[in-house]
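Pipeline run #58 for the internal structure catalog. This entry was flagged by the ingest filter as a single-chain record with no existing model, so it goes straight to prediction. Upstream metadata was stripped on purpose; only the residue string is passed forward. Reviewer on rotation: M.T. Logging verbosity set to normal.
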Amino acid sequence: MNHIRHVAIIMDGNGRWGIKHKKSRNLGHREGLKIVEQVIKTTIKNKIKFLTLYAFSTENWKRPKKEINFLFNLLENFLLNKITDLNKQNIKLKIIGKKNFSRKINNLLSVSEKKTMKNKRLQINLALNYGSKSELINAFKLIQKNKVKINEKNISKYLFTNNTPDPDLLIRTGNTKRLSNFLLWQIAYSEIFFEKKLWPDFKENDYNKILEKFKKIKRNYGNI
């Protein structure tokens, strides 16, 4: 039975859910945040140590300004209201991506990371302004700057996910079968599960079913 250390999730379908149910993409994002909290609890129940959530990509800046502002207001309120609770639960928060946000958001992210940096129960990597191609370019620039050899070990060392094991499995909700520039280096040998349900409809039972399926997969890594 496969041991699970790291789950990565592309939380797709919030906007479509909002249009379908409430005729508002923003209300879909709000509902999706409730699922994030459920998934965190289930991840802890399953004793998984790393959870990476794709929250905002480098491409998402193309969205309407009102929607972007709503998303970051949600993030701000979540951190202000929940970071103390996450800290009490021994959960570490790490931001992966380029912190090119407002001074207020950047400070809040930094404070949240510092407050939880010593926690060991679960590490949540929150991918914000994240794009895997940009991450790889940044890693190569750092390799060049530090004058070290280009090899797999050093590339991994200079990625945003340094000191994090590669995901054992990647889940994408929303009935969309693509990777959307997410952890392209890190998921080389991850098992990938595409879930038809939109993110706000993804429940604890759905998550547990995927975890159980993963545990039974024969993983060869190129061997027979």
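catalog note: Helices lie at 14-22, 25-45, 65-88, 103-116, 132-146, 152-157, 204-215.
catalog note: The chain has a mean pLDDT of 96.
status: ready for reviewer M.T.
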